[in-house]
UniProtKB/TrEMBL annotation:
<feature type="domain" description="Peptidase S33 tripeptidyl aminopeptidase-like C-terminal">
    <location>
        <begin position="401"/>
        <end position="482"/>
    </location>
</feature>
<dbReference type="InterPro" id="IPR000073">
    <property type="entry name" value="AB_hydrolase_1"/>
</dbReference>
<dbReference type="Pfam" id="PF08386">
    <property type="entry name" value="Abhydrolase_4"/>
</dbReference>
<dbReference type="InterPro" id="IPR013595">
    <property type="entry name" value="Pept_S33_TAP-like_C"/>
</dbReference>
<dbReference type="InterPro" id="IPR029058">
    <property type="entry name" value="AB_hydrolase_fold"/>
</dbReference>
<protein>
    <recommendedName>
        <fullName>AB hydrolase-1 domain-containing protein</fullName>
    </recommendedName>
</protein>
<dbReference type="Pfam" id="PF00561">
    <property type="entry name" value="Abhydrolase_1"/>
</dbReference>
<keyword id="KW-0732">Signal</keyword>
<feature type="signal peptide">
    <location>
        <begin position="1"/>
        <end position="20"/>
    </location>
</feature>
<feature type="domain" description="AB hydrolase-1">
    <location>
        <begin position="89"/>
        <end position="236"/>
    </location>
</feature>
Length: 515
């Protein structure tokens, strides 16, 4: 810790009395290596720009800190000399590991490229509470694995809910301090962020949030408007959307992504169905669903129609879609080779990845109608937005999980924000459909909307004019100007967004985010 930073931190503590602040404990990073980096060999000493800290905060903010109402947050910082300000970074999840990002920057590892252009800033990476170095919950999945389809009848629904409740009970029984499971929602996370900001001695905080990091960021901006610096929200997930709308919009986005895979095949001479022309991938999907055994028309395999749909909706098209992989898998299946669609091997991976998300997501998520009829209605209405029949959708999985989570949000208000932020979306983002960014923009009317024309969940790793626009905003505070180009359209506050383009009209390739 350099002396001027110690002074800044100390001034921060003494200059504000709004919190009975606990001081940050700076710790030796070498003894607090984030989980994803454990086992790597680092040069010694670690870079002087890398700092690791802890801060005690109340578990339940409605009560004073102390005793079993105390939890410890873990965070890291990349701190250059003469920092120009504080940027809080969050990659989403919820619950994704965060602390390793400062290490990536300080050591110039692969993901340092996400922050190119922001090297002059303090970059703060806080593991959100209940996760990783911030008082991680202890939960056990036991031998529970999710199947490749969601329950459709009441008995199946009840059995599914029983598994969810059993899992939740492991979190409640195994985690400490007692009661923590109901205090790891976004409501608490934004309070934590403000405590860390204040303890660092900064009056304003900038924010670089991706995916669920945009949801945290929006609630912070709404709750602490006086401390909001430059907020760049990439792949916007807004509050205030009904369950039915959220799920219907994601179905529409999923179907658009499958059409993009067809557009990709048209452009890819190595695609096995390239010569078949437009629509070949959509046809192959239908054929694979139809052939899939053992109840399918060709029982050469144990891969079911639901397994095929699962791989489209939850494996190949999620995140940064693997169009080439999907196109190969569908083609191979139509030739009787089902090896790329074998759910049995993937089930534990998928279960381990999605179920823990509930721990925070369900605390934030309001169930509009928590009856079996309400759930069935979502399946029915959702299907109307899914003419291609992919069926399996991750907002729907999360919804189903939350119907049995012991703690869910009592309401789902919109989150109006006056600040001038930059919201970033991509036309063919399936995880956070671009319509959600339009909804977020309507709640933040002084903000600029950057619409990247291309694929992927998030623009942080897609070099080009859309990324440049929001990184420049973080670096300079200048809101991007309106523009209308092949790979980006930027809308100033008060302007009207164009309809989502036809998936075949936006070129595919590296510039569209396809690596
Ligand atoms: C780290 O260094 C040790 C000793 O030099 C070596 O045995 C090990 O393989 C290295 N690990 C990695 C991940 O490079
Ligand atoms: C930052 O400041 C420290 C101490 O003042 C100095 O040793 C170091 O070389 C500086 N680093 C850079 C990159 O300028
Ligand atoms: C960081 O790594 C990238 C690519 O690996 C390289 O181009 C760049 O020069 C490195 N930056 C520094 C400051 O070493
Ligand atoms: C899963 O675990 C439960 C409880 O430990 C046990 O009753 C059940 O038989 C197990 N099921 C399988 C398929 O292993
Ligand atoms: C999780 O469980 C392990 C082993 O039972 C225990 O050592 C650890 O303290 C627990 N962690 C929390 C946060 O409760
Ligand atoms: C793929 O797209 C690029 C860029 O739009 C274009 O130059 C190329 O000709 C296309 N290739 C095929 C096979 O359509
Ligand atoms: C299907 O699964 C059963 C039981 O797991 C196995 O006996 C059979 O060989 C499998 N069939 C194929 C075609 O993989
Ligand atoms: C099936 O496809 C996989 C993956 O492309 C490949 O490795 C394997 O050789 C194929 N099997 C047959 C029998 O063609
Ligand atoms: C839940 O949804 C069902 C089906 O749409 C409807 O019949 C029922 O009245 C709803 N219940 C509540 C409490 O809104
Ligand atoms: C709202 O934002 C505008 C421009 O961004 C600013 O001029 C105004 O003071 C803000 N109003 C409030 C109540 O914060
Ligand atoms: C952008 O350009 C396209 C055609 O090139 C046009 O259809 C669209 O209306 C323009 N949008 C804006 C916001 O100017």
């Amino acid at each position: 810790m350099r002396s001027h930073s110690v002074l800044f931190a100390a001034l921060g503590i003494f200059s504000r009395f709004s919190y009975a602040l606990n001081a940050i404990r700076w710790v030796d990073c070498a003894e607090h290596v984030p989980v994803p980096l454990q086992g790597m060999n680092f040069t010694s000493p670690l870079p002087s720009t890398l700092h690791c800290g802890q801060l005690d905060v109340p578990m339940d903010y409605s009560k004073p800190i102390g005793g079993s109402n105390t939890i410890t947050l873990g965070f890291t910082m990349y701190r250059p000399n003469n920092s120009q300000g504080l940027i809080n970074f969050n990659p989403g999840g919820p619950g994704q590991e965060v602390a390793s990002y400062s290490w990536e920057i300080a050591l110039n590892l692969t993901r340092a490229s996400w922050f190119a252009g922001l090297e002059g800033y303090d970059i703060l990476a806080i593991d959100t509470r209940g996760w990783w170095s911030s008082n991680a919950l202890n939960c056990s999945l036991g031998n529970w694995t999710l199947s490749s389809s969601l329950p459709s009848d009441e008995a199946g629904f009840n059995a599914f809910q029983a598994s969810v409740r059993a899992y939740a009970q492991t979190c409640i029984s195994l985690s400490t301090p007692p009661g923590i499971v109901q205090y790891i929602g976004t409501r608490e996370v934004v309070q934590d962020w403000d405590r860390v900001r204040a303890a660092l001695g900064y009056d304003t905080m900038h924010h670089f949030g991706i995916s669920y990091g945009t949801y945290y960021g929006a609630l912070y901006a709404h709750t602490f408007p006086e401390h909001v610096g430059r907020f760049a929200l990439d792949a916007v997930y807004p509050a205030g959307v009904s369950n039915v709308d959220l799920i219907s919009l994601q179905y529409a986005a999923l179907d658009r992504s499958l059409v993009r895979s067809d557009a990709y095949c048209l452009n890819d001479t190595t695609c096995p169905l390239h010569s078949q022309g437009k629509g070949a991938i959509l046809e192959a999907f239908k054929t694979a669903v139809d052939l899939a055994g053992p109840s399918g028309s060709e029982s050469t395999s144990n891969v079911t129609a639901d397994d095929v749909r699962f791989f489209v909706g939850l494996r190949y098209l999620v995140g940064d879609p693997d169009f080439a992989g999907l196109n190969d898998a569908l083609y191979e299946a139509t030739q009787g080779n089902w090896s790329l669609l074998d759910y049995s091997k993937f089930a534990p991976v998928f279960t381990g990845a999605i179920v823990p998300i509930t721990q925070t997501y369900c605390l934030d998520y309001h169930i509009d109608n928590n009856t079996f009829e309400g759930y069935s209605n979502i399946l029915k209405v959702g299907a109307e937005s899914d003419p291609l029949g992919v069926k399996f959708l991750f907002f729907l999985v999360l919804h189903a999980l939350c119907t049995a989570w012991p703690y869910t949000a009592a309401s789902n208000p919109t989150v109006p924000i006056n600040a001038s932020m930059v919201l970033v979306t991509a036309d063919f983002d399936y995880n956070t459909p671009t319509e959600l960014a339009t909804i977020g923009w309507s709640q933040a009317p002084n903000s600029v909307l950057v619409d990247r024309h291309g694929d992927d969940h998030g623009t942080y790793n897609v070099p080009g004019p859309a990324r440049t626009a929001f990184i420049d905003f973080l670096a300079t505070g200048n809101l991007p100007a309106a523009t209308n180009q092949t790979f980006v359209t930027i809308y100033e506050p008060g302007s009207q967004r164009d309809p989502i383009p036809d998936p075949y009209s936006v070129p595919v390739g590296v510039e569209a985010g396809d690596m």
